[in-house]
Design a protein that fits this description.
This protein is an alpha+beta fold and 318 residues long. The protein is built from 7 helices and 13 strands. The strands form 3 sheets. A 7-stranded mixed sheet has the order 5-13-10-6-9-8-7. Strands 1-11-12-4 form a 4-stranded mixed sheet. Strand 8 and strand 9 form a beta hairpin.
């Protein structure tokens, strides 16, 4: 979808680039997630794991032609795409006036896009479970991270659910280095690989880490993320070095996180956004009253293994 007027800033190419910038500043979780094209509103994601290690020796001369099914443990998850829409309208009089706030269709579309990206971030960070759509009756709802990282989420096979040990659910006062390291140790135990993680933290959790952890808080470092080759977006982060890898701490958008004390420990290898179509803008027929239209997107959160994710949610969380 695109504006018919190619001179405004809301055309398809500029809109996508603007969405990337917004994701980096106002939608940090969406900014982290890789995006892949899907062709079905209920896409299926497959996940697999290695067999447990064994130390049994092989007896010379014993037949080895029995064969072993290497895909018996394959699990699957079916997502549910959700459409998000933000409409806009500007009257002819608004566009004609010389106002301190630019009130034209390009400005209205850009503001709608910012609202749309925050809606997407809210959906991704939310606690809601997925809801199948019923055309004309019920809108489809995609699962949020709070639901995906639920240790008892029956949408995933038991072997691929987020382990209870990867979820801190004690009190805020007891969340310290040792408690956080226990979460990271559990995550490390899922694959045995050195971790390179991101903690997207609510404002309360971020302040608690800085003030209460025993480490010495240093100056924030700077790291760049290449967004699909289209732009390089800087994040101001704080590095947390653990026994099992590094964690880059990023502020969650307070308007989009379920709680100021919520935190998601994300390995982007195990989480992505499935996109039926990306951020777009469409201008409607004005019929003499001015310009109006809408920005929208259609997609779903997908996980290749919630067992590789972690979460912080305090038992005394407001």
């Amino acid at each position: 979808m695109a504006y018919t007027d190619t001179n405004v800033t809301g055309n398809r190419e500029d809109l996508k680039q603007l969405a990337t910038v917004i994701a980096a500043t106002q939608a940090p979780v969406c900014g982290l997630l890789p995006t892949r094209q899907i062709s079905n509103k209920r896409p299926v994601v497959l996940m697999d794991s290695l067999a447990s290690p064994v130390a049994t020796g092989h007896i010379e001369g014993t037949a080895t032609d029995t064969g072993v099914d290497k895909f018996a443990a394959v699990g699957e998850y079916t997502g549910q795409a959700q459409r998000l829409v933000r409409e806009w309208q500007v009257t002819k009089e608004q566009e004609a006036h010389n106002s301190a706030v630019v009130a034209d269709k390009a400005g209205a579309s850009e503001k709608a896009l910012k609202e749309l990206m925050r809606d997407k971030e809210t959906v991704v960070c939310g606690d809601q479970g997925k809801t199948a759509d019923v055309p004309g009756t019920t809108a489809g709802v995609t699962a949020g991270l709070g639901d995906i990282t639920n240790a008892s989420n029956a949408d995933f096979a038991a072997a691929y659910r987020t382990p209870a040990a990867s979820i801190y659910s004690g009190t805020k006062a007891n969340f310290d280095d040792a408690a956080f390291n226990a979460v990271l140790a559990s995550m490390f135990g899922q694959g045995g690989e050195f971790l390179d993680l991101h903690l997207v933290a609510g404002t309360g959790l971020r302040s608690h880490i800085v003030e209460q952890f025993t480490r010495t808080a240093g100056a924030a470092s700077q790291i760049d993320y290449n967004m699909n080759g289209t732009a390089v977006i800087p994040y101001t982060v704080e590095m947390y070095d653990s026994d099992f890898g590094t964690v880059k701490i990023i502020n969650g958008n307070p308007a989009c996180m379920p709680s100021v004390d919520r935190g998601y420990v994300i390995d982007p290898r195990y989480l992505e956004w499935g996109e039926l179509y990306g951020e777009g803008s469409e201008e409607y027929e004005g019929r003499g009253v001015g310009s109006k239209g809408a920005c929208d997107l259609y997609g779903t959160t997908l996980s290749q293994g919630p067992n590789g994710l972690g979460k912080v949610e305090f038992s005394d969380e407001a």
